[in-house]
Amino acid sequence: MPCIRGNCAAFPGRLMRNVVILDLDGTVLSVNSFRLWASYMLRAASPHMAPGRRLGLALRAGGALVARKAGLMGHEALKHHLQSLWQRSTAGDGGATLSHFNDGLRRHVRPELQPLLSAMAAGQVDGVLATAAAADYAQHFGGLLGIPHVLATPAIRPRTMPSNIGRHKRDAVLDFLARQGWMERPRILFTDHEDDLPLIEICRTVHWFGPPTALAAMATRFPHTALHQGFTDPEDRRQRC
Predict the structure, then answer these.
(1) Could you say which of 63, 69, 107, 159 is the most buried, measured as most Cβ atoms within 10 Å of its Cβ?
(2) What CA–CA distance (Å, rounded) separates 119 from 126?
(3) Is there a domain that residue 1 lies in?
């Protein structure tokens, strides 16, 4: 198990043996990035857009969110619509709006995971950020954190293509591991949501950032998986290091 306390380079054998799989919302981030992204568009918060474009973005995002609230649009349709809206609204700004949004998002990274993220950025730990978040911002955000590999919901996709979630996310991770030649290496998953049950099933170790009450049921369902509640217990960290 990677040591995320102190100098990870002191454990090269352990770090080389494992592959870390990180969820984004509620795990690397203490918040749900989709909600912040939708709110950012609703407020047209980018200082890099002309007033007319900002107004159009706010009105269209607001209309989509009202439709979702009224039950006229499902979550998947809303995400697809917001992706298209984001792409049209940010076209030609050289990535300025994307950087502005992700700079704000970075403030929500869990501080206890920063040493692990730094180790990944330094190439001491192999891993991947696997998220249902839109690649429109998640790809760039992973790069900001120094994570070289990001699997997210594609920016350009047919309406019938689902988000990178559940079994689709598991399959994307397995395809990625096969391409990297990492299929035989132990997997350590960091997640907070039961949408990742298909991923939990194929991982040796899971660090859970969701409700503590869910751990007992997961322990029964996955008796051969080592389950840990986040990284909140200093004594647990020392034992794992």
Answers:
(1) 63
(2) 9
(3) no
